[in-house]
Amino acid sequence: MRIELTEEQRMLQQTCKDFADNELKPHAAKWDEEKRFPSEAVAQLRDLGLMGVAVPEKWGGPEMDNVSYVVAMEEISRGCASTGVIMSVNNSLYCDPVLRYGNDEQKERWLSPFASGQKLGCFGLTEPQAGSDAAAQKTTAVPDGDGWVLNGTKSWITNAPNADTALIFAMTEPDKGVKGISAFLVDRDNPGYETSAPEQKMGIRAALSSEIVMEDCRLGPEALLGKPGDGFKVAMSTLDGGRIGIAAQALGIARAALEAAREYAVERVAFGKPIADFQAIQFMVSDMATRLEASRLLTYKAAWMKDQKARHSKESAMAKVFASEAATFVAHRAQQIFGGNGYSVEYPVERHYRDARITEIYEGTSEIQRLVIATSLLREA
Ligand code: CAA
Protein backbone atom coordinates (compact mmCIF):
# COMPACT_ATOMS: atom_id res chain seq x y z
CA MET A 1 0.00 0.00 0.00
CA ARG A 2 1.33 3.44 -0.93
CA ILE A 3 -0.23 6.63 0.35
CA GLU A 4 1.56 9.32 -1.58
CA LEU A 5 0.71 11.77 -4.31
CA THR A 6 2.16 11.30 -7.77
CA GLU A 7 4.73 13.76 -9.09
CA GLU A 8 1.99 15.44 -11.18
CA GLN A 9 -0.33 15.72 -8.20
CA ARG A 10 2.44 17.26 -6.07
CA MET A 11 3.19 19.81 -8.81
CA LEU A 12 -0.48 20.72 -9.03
CA GLN A 13 -0.60 21.04 -5.24
CA GLN A 14 2.35 23.45 -5.23
CA THR A 15 0.90 25.52 -8.07
CA CYS A 16 -2.44 25.79 -6.26
CA LYS A 17 -0.74 26.59 -2.95
CA ASP A 18 1.30 29.42 -4.52
CA PHE A 19 -1.79 30.73 -6.26
CA ALA A 20 -3.79 30.62 -2.99
CA ASP A 21 -1.01 32.36 -1.03
CA ASN A 22 -0.51 35.11 -3.60
CA GLU A 23 -3.92 35.66 -5.19
CA LEU A 24 -6.59 34.41 -2.77
CA LYS A 25 -5.45 34.71 0.86
CA PRO A 26 -4.64 38.45 0.68
CA HIS A 27 -8.14 39.26 -0.68
CA ALA A 28 -10.43 36.67 0.96
CA ALA A 29 -11.46 38.83 3.94
CA LYS A 30 -12.32 41.79 1.69
CA TRP A 31 -14.36 39.69 -0.77
CA ASP A 32 -16.20 38.20 2.19
CA GLU A 33 -16.88 41.61 3.73
CA GLU A 34 -18.06 43.06 0.42
CA LYS A 35 -20.04 39.88 -0.41
CA ARG A 36 -18.59 40.20 -3.88
CA PHE A 37 -18.22 37.38 -6.41
CA PRO A 38 -14.42 37.09 -6.95
CA SER A 39 -14.55 37.24 -10.75
CA GLU A 40 -10.79 37.91 -11.00
CA ALA A 41 -10.03 34.74 -8.98
CA VAL A 42 -12.46 32.68 -11.05
CA ALA A 43 -10.76 33.93 -14.25
CA GLN A 44 -7.42 32.75 -12.81
CA LEU A 45 -8.91 29.36 -11.91
CA ARG A 46 -9.91 29.11 -15.56
CA ASP A 47 -6.32 29.85 -16.66
CA LEU A 48 -5.04 27.19 -14.24
CA GLY A 49 -7.45 24.61 -15.70
CA LEU A 50 -9.31 24.19 -12.41
CA MET A 51 -12.92 24.68 -13.51
CA GLY A 52 -13.33 21.18 -14.96
CA VAL A 53 -10.40 19.30 -13.45
CA ALA A 54 -11.51 15.74 -14.25
CA VAL A 55 -13.14 16.55 -17.62
CA PRO A 56 -11.43 14.99 -20.68
CA GLU A 57 -9.45 17.31 -22.94
CA LYS A 58 -11.93 16.56 -25.72
CA TRP A 59 -14.57 18.42 -23.70
CA GLY A 60 -12.46 21.37 -22.55
CA GLY A 61 -10.89 20.02 -19.33
CA PRO A 62 -7.30 19.11 -18.37
CA GLU A 63 -8.30 15.44 -17.88
CA MET A 64 -6.80 14.99 -14.41
CA ASP A 65 -8.12 12.54 -11.84
CA ASN A 66 -10.38 13.09 -8.86
CA VAL A 67 -7.51 12.83 -6.37
CA SER A 68 -5.95 15.81 -8.20
CA TYR A 69 -9.29 17.59 -7.92
CA VAL A 70 -9.42 17.24 -4.11
CA VAL A 71 -5.76 18.21 -3.78
CA ALA A 72 -6.53 21.40 -5.73
CA MET A 73 -9.79 22.04 -3.83
CA GLU A 74 -8.04 21.87 -0.46
CA GLU A 75 -5.42 24.42 -1.54
CA ILE A 76 -7.91 26.82 -3.14
CA SER A 77 -10.28 26.64 -0.14
CA ARG A 78 -7.37 27.22 2.22
CA GLY A 79 -6.87 30.54 0.39
CA CYS A 80 -10.56 31.44 0.05
CA ALA A 81 -13.46 29.15 0.97
CA SER A 82 -15.90 31.11 -1.22
CA THR A 83 -13.69 30.63 -4.28
CA GLY A 84 -13.47 26.95 -3.29
CA VAL A 85 -17.20 26.37 -3.42
CA ILE A 86 -17.61 28.30 -6.69
CA MET A 87 -15.03 25.92 -8.18
CA SER A 88 -16.59 22.88 -6.52
CA VAL A 89 -20.10 23.56 -7.83
CA ASN A 90 -18.87 24.05 -11.40
CA ASN A 91 -16.68 20.92 -11.27
CA SER A 92 -18.73 18.45 -9.26
CA LEU A 93 -22.33 19.53 -9.52
CA TYR A 94 -22.40 20.81 -13.06
CA CYS A 95 -19.61 19.45 -15.31
CA ASP A 96 -19.61 15.95 -13.80
CA PRO A 97 -23.29 15.09 -14.48
CA VAL A 98 -23.18 16.66 -17.97
CA LEU A 99 -20.10 14.52 -18.70
CA ARG A 100 -21.74 11.34 -17.37
CA TYR A 101 -25.26 11.79 -18.78
CA GLY A 102 -24.92 14.17 -21.75
CA ASN A 103 -24.86 13.21 -25.43
CA ASP A 104 -22.18 14.65 -27.72
CA GLU A 105 -24.30 17.64 -28.80
CA GLN A 106 -25.04 18.47 -25.18
CA LYS A 107 -21.38 18.13 -24.22
CA GLU A 108 -20.38 20.44 -27.08
CA ARG A 109 -22.83 23.13 -25.95
CA TRP A 110 -23.16 22.60 -22.19
CA LEU A 111 -19.85 21.05 -21.11
CA SER A 112 -16.86 22.35 -23.11
CA PRO A 113 -17.35 26.08 -22.34
CA PHE A 114 -17.94 25.27 -18.65
CA ALA A 115 -15.05 22.84 -18.18
CA SER A 116 -12.70 25.35 -19.82
CA GLY A 117 -14.03 28.04 -17.45
CA GLN A 118 -15.51 30.40 -20.03
CA LYS A 119 -18.95 29.82 -18.55
CA LEU A 120 -20.21 28.96 -15.08
CA GLY A 121 -22.75 26.34 -14.06
CA CYS A 122 -24.98 25.69 -11.06
CA PHE A 123 -27.13 22.88 -9.65
CA GLY A 124 -30.84 23.45 -9.04
CA LEU A 125 -32.16 20.70 -6.77
CA THR A 126 -33.16 22.40 -3.50
CA GLU A 127 -36.61 23.96 -3.20
CA PRO A 128 -38.24 25.76 -0.26
CA GLN A 129 -39.89 22.48 0.85
CA ALA A 130 -37.27 20.11 -0.61
CA GLY A 131 -33.93 20.44 1.25
CA SER A 132 -32.99 17.19 3.00
CA ASP A 133 -36.09 15.62 1.42
CA ALA A 134 -34.78 16.11 -2.09
CA ALA A 135 -37.48 13.92 -3.63
CA ALA A 136 -40.23 16.37 -2.59
CA GLN A 137 -39.83 18.35 -5.82
CA LYS A 138 -42.64 20.76 -6.75
CA THR A 139 -41.08 22.24 -9.87
CA THR A 140 -42.87 20.78 -12.87
CA ALA A 141 -41.79 20.16 -16.45
CA VAL A 142 -44.80 19.61 -18.70
CA PRO A 143 -44.39 18.31 -22.28
CA ASP A 144 -44.97 21.07 -24.85
CA GLY A 145 -44.70 20.09 -28.51
CA ASP A 146 -41.38 18.27 -28.67
CA GLY A 147 -40.04 20.25 -25.70
CA TRP A 148 -41.01 21.21 -22.14
CA VAL A 149 -42.41 24.05 -20.05
CA LEU A 150 -40.92 24.52 -16.58
CA ASN A 151 -42.60 26.17 -13.58
CA GLY A 152 -41.25 26.34 -10.04
CA THR A 153 -38.78 27.86 -7.62
CA LYS A 154 -35.35 26.60 -6.61
CA SER A 155 -33.77 28.00 -3.45
CA TRP A 156 -30.28 28.40 -1.99
CA ILE A 157 -28.63 27.73 -5.35
CA THR A 158 -24.90 28.42 -5.06
CA ASN A 159 -23.54 30.29 -8.13
CA ALA A 160 -27.08 31.00 -9.43
CA PRO A 161 -26.61 34.81 -9.64
CA ASN A 162 -23.48 34.32 -11.79
CA ALA A 163 -24.22 31.09 -13.63
CA ASP A 164 -24.83 30.90 -17.37
CA THR A 165 -26.68 27.59 -17.10
CA ALA A 166 -28.42 25.65 -14.34
CA LEU A 167 -28.96 21.93 -14.08
CA ILE A 168 -32.59 21.92 -12.99
CA PHE A 169 -34.52 18.98 -11.54
CA ALA A 170 -38.26 18.90 -12.15
CA MET A 171 -41.23 16.56 -11.88
CA THR A 172 -42.24 15.23 -15.27
CA GLU A 173 -44.57 12.51 -13.91
CA PRO A 174 -45.61 13.51 -10.37
CA ASP A 175 -47.54 10.28 -9.71
CA LYS A 176 -44.30 8.27 -10.11
CA GLY A 177 -42.53 9.96 -7.14
CA VAL A 178 -38.72 9.84 -7.37
CA LYS A 179 -39.03 7.93 -10.65
CA GLY A 180 -40.95 10.90 -12.11
CA ILE A 181 -38.11 13.43 -11.70
CA SER A 182 -36.09 14.50 -14.76
CA ALA A 183 -33.01 16.71 -15.25
CA PHE A 184 -32.81 19.72 -17.61
CA LEU A 185 -30.11 22.14 -18.74
CA VAL A 186 -31.57 25.64 -18.56
CA ASP A 187 -29.74 28.74 -19.81
CA ARG A 188 -30.11 31.94 -17.82
CA ASP A 189 -31.13 33.95 -20.91
CA ASN A 190 -34.14 31.69 -21.37
CA PRO A 191 -37.38 33.78 -21.12
CA GLY A 192 -39.18 32.85 -17.90
CA TYR A 193 -35.93 32.24 -15.96
CA GLU A 194 -35.03 34.74 -13.23
CA THR A 195 -32.70 34.76 -10.22
CA SER A 196 -33.51 36.62 -7.00
CA ALA A 197 -31.22 38.91 -5.01
CA PRO A 198 -28.42 36.91 -3.28
CA GLU A 199 -29.16 35.47 0.18
CA GLN A 200 -27.55 37.18 3.19
CA LYS A 201 -25.37 34.46 4.71
CA MET A 202 -23.20 33.79 7.77
CA GLY A 203 -20.18 32.54 5.81
CA ILE A 204 -18.79 31.89 2.31
CA ARG A 205 -20.23 35.33 1.57
CA ALA A 206 -18.32 35.87 -1.69
CA ALA A 207 -20.00 32.81 -3.23
CA LEU A 208 -23.44 34.06 -4.11
CA SER A 209 -26.58 31.94 -3.61
CA SER A 210 -30.09 32.84 -4.69
CA GLU A 211 -33.45 31.54 -5.80
CA ILE A 212 -34.11 30.55 -9.39
CA VAL A 213 -37.68 31.28 -10.39
CA MET A 214 -39.08 29.66 -13.53
CA GLU A 215 -42.39 30.85 -14.97
CA ASP A 216 -43.49 29.22 -18.20
CA CYS A 217 -39.86 28.67 -19.08
CA ARG A 218 -39.86 26.88 -22.46
CA LEU A 219 -37.16 24.39 -23.36
CA GLY A 220 -36.40 22.42 -26.50
CA PRO A 221 -36.06 18.61 -26.44
CA GLU A 222 -32.24 18.98 -26.35
CA ALA A 223 -32.44 20.37 -22.77
CA LEU A 224 -33.32 17.00 -21.21
CA LEU A 225 -30.24 15.44 -19.56
CA GLY A 226 -30.47 11.65 -19.41
CA LYS A 227 -33.78 9.88 -19.85
CA PRO A 228 -37.15 11.10 -18.50
CA GLY A 229 -37.40 9.79 -14.92
CA ASP A 230 -33.60 9.58 -14.47
CA GLY A 231 -33.42 12.89 -12.59
CA PHE A 232 -33.21 11.61 -9.01
CA LYS A 233 -30.47 9.17 -9.94
CA VAL A 234 -28.61 11.98 -11.74
CA ALA A 235 -28.94 14.19 -8.64
CA MET A 236 -27.92 11.57 -6.08
CA SER A 237 -24.96 10.20 -8.04
CA THR A 238 -23.83 13.78 -8.65
CA LEU A 239 -23.97 14.51 -4.92
CA ASP A 240 -21.83 11.42 -4.30
CA GLY A 241 -19.07 13.30 -6.13
CA GLY A 242 -20.03 16.76 -4.85
CA ARG A 243 -19.68 15.67 -1.24
CA ILE A 244 -16.04 14.75 -1.89
CA GLY A 245 -15.49 18.30 -3.15
CA ILE A 246 -17.09 19.75 0.00
CA ALA A 247 -14.99 17.45 2.19
CA ALA A 248 -11.92 18.90 0.43
CA GLN A 249 -13.26 22.43 0.91
CA ALA A 250 -13.66 21.67 4.64
CA LEU A 251 -10.06 20.40 4.70
CA GLY A 252 -8.86 23.68 3.22
CA ILE A 253 -10.81 25.75 5.77
CA ALA A 254 -9.50 23.60 8.65
CA ARG A 255 -5.94 23.90 7.40
CA ALA A 256 -6.19 27.68 7.14
CA ALA A 257 -7.51 27.81 10.74
CA LEU A 258 -4.81 25.46 12.06
CA GLU A 259 -2.02 27.39 10.31
CA ALA A 260 -3.30 30.69 11.72
CA ALA A 261 -3.59 29.20 15.23
CA ARG A 262 -0.12 27.70 15.09
CA GLU A 263 1.43 31.00 13.99
CA TYR A 264 -0.43 32.88 16.71
CA ALA A 265 0.42 30.37 19.45
CA VAL A 266 4.18 30.67 18.90
CA GLU A 267 4.07 34.48 18.88
CA ARG A 268 1.53 35.34 21.55
CA VAL A 269 3.08 35.64 24.99
CA ALA A 270 1.17 35.08 28.25
CA PHE A 271 2.45 34.42 31.76
CA GLY A 272 5.97 35.12 30.51
CA LYS A 273 6.18 32.65 27.61
CA PRO A 274 4.63 31.88 24.20
CA ILE A 275 1.23 30.27 24.71
CA ALA A 276 2.47 27.37 22.49
CA ASP A 277 4.50 26.29 25.53
CA PHE A 278 1.36 25.50 27.52
CA GLN A 279 -0.10 22.00 27.38
CA ALA A 280 -3.63 23.43 27.15
CA ILE A 281 -2.68 24.87 23.75
CA GLN A 282 -0.55 21.87 22.71
CA PHE A 283 -3.42 19.43 23.30
CA MET A 284 -5.77 21.59 21.25
CA VAL A 285 -3.27 21.80 18.38
CA SER A 286 -2.72 18.01 18.50
CA ASP A 287 -6.44 17.25 18.26
CA MET A 288 -6.85 19.78 15.45
CA ALA A 289 -3.98 18.30 13.40
CA THR A 290 -5.11 14.70 13.98
CA ARG A 291 -8.68 15.35 12.84
CA LEU A 292 -7.36 17.24 9.83
CA GLU A 293 -5.13 14.33 8.82
CA ALA A 294 -7.93 11.78 9.30
CA SER A 295 -10.24 13.97 7.18
CA ARG A 296 -7.65 14.12 4.43
CA LEU A 297 -7.26 10.34 4.32
CA LEU A 298 -11.03 9.80 4.12
CA THR A 299 -11.30 12.43 1.39
CA TYR A 300 -8.45 10.97 -0.69
CA LYS A 301 -9.98 7.48 -0.32
CA ALA A 302 -13.38 8.68 -1.56
CA ALA A 303 -11.76 10.50 -4.52
CA TRP A 304 -9.71 7.41 -5.34
CA MET A 305 -12.87 5.27 -5.28
CA LYS A 306 -14.48 7.69 -7.75
CA ASP A 307 -11.37 7.37 -9.94
CA GLN A 308 -11.78 3.57 -9.81
CA LYS A 309 -15.40 4.09 -10.99
CA ALA A 310 -16.56 2.20 -7.89
CA ARG A 311 -19.77 3.17 -6.09
CA HIS A 312 -18.64 5.72 -3.50
CA SER A 313 -21.85 6.93 -1.82
CA LYS A 314 -20.74 5.67 1.60
CA GLU A 315 -17.12 6.82 1.30
CA SER A 316 -18.07 10.33 0.13
CA ALA A 317 -20.64 10.65 2.94
CA MET A 318 -18.01 9.50 5.48
CA ALA A 319 -15.47 11.97 4.12
CA LYS A 320 -17.98 14.82 4.13
CA VAL A 321 -19.41 14.25 7.60
CA PHE A 322 -16.00 13.75 9.18
CA ALA A 323 -14.18 16.56 7.37
CA SER A 324 -16.97 19.11 7.84
CA GLU A 325 -17.32 18.40 11.56
CA ALA A 326 -13.52 18.46 11.85
CA ALA A 327 -13.46 21.86 10.12
CA THR A 328 -15.92 23.31 12.63
CA PHE A 329 -13.93 21.74 15.50
CA VAL A 330 -10.61 23.05 14.19
CA ALA A 331 -11.95 26.56 13.49
CA HIS A 332 -13.59 26.63 16.94
CA ARG A 333 -10.34 25.66 18.68
CA ALA A 334 -8.39 28.14 16.53
CA GLN A 335 -10.72 30.90 17.69
CA GLN A 336 -10.21 29.73 21.28
CA ILE A 337 -6.41 29.88 20.89
CA PHE A 338 -6.72 33.43 19.57
CA GLY A 339 -8.80 34.37 22.65
CA GLY A 340 -10.49 37.79 22.35
CA ASN A 341 -8.63 38.47 19.10
CA GLY A 342 -10.34 35.41 17.61
CA TYR A 343 -13.65 37.18 17.96
CA SER A 344 -12.42 40.18 16.00
CA VAL A 345 -12.86 40.60 12.25
CA GLU A 346 -9.26 41.90 12.23
CA TYR A 347 -8.09 38.27 12.43
CA PRO A 348 -9.01 35.47 10.00
CA VAL A 349 -10.28 32.77 12.37
CA GLU A 350 -13.80 34.17 12.90
CA ARG A 351 -14.23 33.92 9.09
CA HIS A 352 -12.88 30.36 9.06
CA TYR A 353 -15.44 29.44 11.73
CA ARG A 354 -18.28 31.08 9.76
CA ASP A 355 -17.10 29.38 6.56
CA ALA A 356 -16.74 25.96 8.22
CA ARG A 357 -20.34 25.83 9.44
CA ILE A 358 -21.92 25.56 5.98
CA THR A 359 -19.86 22.47 5.13
CA GLU A 360 -21.97 20.59 7.70
CA ILE A 361 -25.16 21.74 5.97
CA TYR A 362 -24.97 22.02 2.19
CA GLU A 363 -24.81 19.05 -0.22
CA GLY A 364 -26.58 17.11 2.52
CA THR A 365 -26.48 17.87 6.25
CA SER A 366 -24.35 15.77 8.61
CA GLU A 367 -27.54 13.96 9.57
CA ILE A 368 -28.23 13.05 5.90
CA GLN A 369 -24.62 11.82 5.52
CA ARG A 370 -25.12 9.53 8.53
CA LEU A 371 -28.32 8.26 6.92
CA VAL A 372 -26.49 7.53 3.65
CA ILE A 373 -23.70 5.71 5.53
CA ALA A 374 -26.17 3.63 7.57
CA THR A 375 -28.26 2.76 4.51
CA SER A 376 -25.16 1.62 2.59
CA LEU A 377 -23.86 -0.42 5.54
CA LEU A 378 -27.16 -2.13 6.15
CA ARG A 379 -27.65 -2.85 2.45
CA GLU A 380 -24.15 -4.37 2.30
CA ALA A 381 -24.84 -6.63 5.30
N1 CAA B 1 -26.76 6.96 -6.75
C1 CAA B 1 -27.67 6.46 -7.60
N2 CAA B 1 -28.97 6.23 -7.24
C2 CAA B 1 -29.34 6.54 -5.97
C3 CAA B 1 -28.43 7.08 -5.04
C4 CAA B 1 -27.09 7.28 -5.47
N3 CAA B 1 -26.17 7.77 -4.65
N4 CAA B 1 -29.08 7.28 -3.87
C5 CAA B 1 -30.34 6.89 -4.04
N5 CAA B 1 -30.50 6.44 -5.31
C6 CAA B 1 -31.70 5.87 -5.90
C7 CAA B 1 -32.12 4.66 -5.07
O1 CAA B 1 -31.44 3.50 -5.48
C8 CAA B 1 -33.61 4.60 -5.33
O2 CAA B 1 -33.88 3.99 -6.58
P1 CAA B 1 -34.49 2.48 -6.66
O3 CAA B 1 -35.84 2.59 -6.01
O4 CAA B 1 -34.52 2.20 -8.11
O5 CAA B 1 -33.53 1.64 -5.87
C9 CAA B 1 -34.00 6.07 -5.46
O6 CAA B 1 -32.79 6.79 -5.78
C10 CAA B 1 -34.59 6.62 -4.20
O7 CAA B 1 -33.67 6.44 -3.14
P2 CAA B 1 -34.07 6.62 -1.62
O8 CAA B 1 -35.31 5.82 -1.35
O9 CAA B 1 -32.87 6.36 -0.79
O10 CAA B 1 -34.47 8.19 -1.59
P3 CAA B 1 -35.01 9.11 -0.42
O11 CAA B 1 -36.11 9.92 -0.93
O12 CAA B 1 -35.20 8.31 0.83
O13 CAA B 1 -33.78 10.13 -0.22
C11 CAA B 1 -31.75 10.93 0.75
C12 CAA B 1 -32.54 9.75 0.18
C13 CAA B 1 -30.35 10.37 1.00
C14 CAA B 1 -32.30 11.46 2.04
C15 CAA B 1 -31.68 12.06 -0.32
O14 CAA B 1 -32.91 12.70 -0.44
C16 CAA B 1 -30.61 13.10 0.00
O15 CAA B 1 -29.43 12.90 -0.31
N6 CAA B 1 -31.02 14.25 0.59
C17 CAA B 1 -30.10 15.38 0.77
C18 CAA B 1 -30.19 16.28 -0.42
C19 CAA B 1 -28.96 17.10 -0.63
O16 CAA B 1 -27.84 16.65 -0.41
N7 CAA B 1 -29.15 18.33 -1.11
C20 CAA B 1 -28.05 19.17 -1.44
C21 CAA B 1 -28.47 20.18 -2.43
S1 CAA B 1 -27.19 20.72 -3.46
C22 CAA B 1 -26.27 21.84 -2.62
O17 CAA B 1 -26.34 21.94 -1.41
C23 CAA B 1 -25.31 22.58 -3.45
C24 CAA B 1 -24.63 23.73 -2.80
O18 CAA B 1 -25.21 24.63 -2.25
C25 CAA B 1 -23.19 23.78 -2.85
**What proportion of the residues is helical, as a percent range?**
40-55%
- What is the string of helix and strand elements? HHHHHHEEEEEEEEHEEHHHH
- Give every kind of bound small molecule, once each: acetoacetyl-coenzyme A
Instruction: Predict the CATH topology of the largest domain.
Output: Butyryl-CoA Dehydrogenase, subunit A, domain 3
For the biggest sheet, the summary is: 4 strands, mixed
Distance from N terminus to C terminus (CA atoms, Å) equals 26 Å
Number of helical segments?
A: 11
Account of the 3D structure:
The protein has 381 residues and is an alpha+beta fold. The chain folds into three domains: 7-115, Acyl-CoA dehydrogenase/oxidase, N-terminal domain (Butyryl-Coa Dehydrogenase, subunit A, domain 1), CATH 1.10.540; 121-232, Beta Barrel (Butyryl-CoA Dehydrogenase, subunit A, domain 2), CATH 2.40.110.10; 240-380, Butyryl-CoA Dehydrogenase, subunit A, domain 3, CATH 1.20.140.10. Helices cover 53% and strands 14% of the residues. The protein contains eleven helices and ten strands. The protein has helices at residues 7-34, 39-47, 66-79, 81-101, 104-110, 112-115, 231-267, 279-307, 313-338, 349-359, 366-380, and strands at residues 121-124, 140-144, 147-158, 165-171, 181-187, 193-195, 209-219, 224-225, 269-270, 273-274. A hairpin with a 2-residue loop joins strand 9 (269-270) and strand 10. It starts with 6 loop residues before the first helix and ends with a helix. The model has no long low-confidence stretch (mean pLDDT 98). Acetoacetyl-coenzyme A binds next to helix 4, helix 7 and helix 11.
